[in-house]
Amino acid sequence: MKLALDRFADNPVIDELICWTENNQPIKSLRACAAIWRKPFIEIEYQDSKKLDHMHFPKELFIHYWSEATVVLETLTDIKLISEFKCNPVENKKATIETILSTRNACIRECDSMFESGMYQVYINQFGANCKDLPEETLEKLEIARQKVVQ
After folding, report:
1. Which residues, at least 6 apart from 78, have a Cβ–Cβ distance to it below 8 Å?
2. Residues 6 or more apart from 71 whose CB is under 8 A from it?
3. Contact present, 122 and 148 (Cβ < 8 Å)
4. Domain boundaries defined on the chain
5. What is the DSSP-derived secondary structure letter of residue 92?
6. Residue pLDDT, tens place only, 114-135
7. Structure confidence by residue, pLDDT tens digits, 19-74
8. What is the pTM for the complete model shown?
9. Which strands, in side-by-side order, build the sheet including 27-33?
């Protein structure tokens, strides 16, 4: 969910992911590699194409940021995350997940005002192809919004 991910954009991995990828193109996987002699990178594999994109990052704190981003992405998306290195454990992971879910729910409530204002395309754009565990009410609103946009 774009709005919820944006709330965690102080993490450079999340920030780059929001800016880099197209909202409507489903992502199959993100593969993180922290090579010893090269800049760390994340490879984005898209669901419906053979296209691969790469995002490069400075070495400083990359493993920390990737470890933090995996908790956010695992909670909000169905993207397969592949780490080619040992991630650092996230402190107080349970509380972090609760914060992420609380943020997601607040963002859904914010998006509801877009739906109610008739801003159906904007509403749809707030939910990417990889959102997971959306409430039934939100899924119903997304379907209504898609039908309204097509008309």
Report:
1. 130, 131, 132
2. 90, 93, 96, 97, 100
3. no
4. 1-151
5. T
6. 999 999 999 998 888 889 999 9
7. 866 556 788 999 999 888 888 999 999 888 778 888 888 888 899 999 999 999 99
8. 0.89
9. 52-56, 41-46, 27-33, 80-83
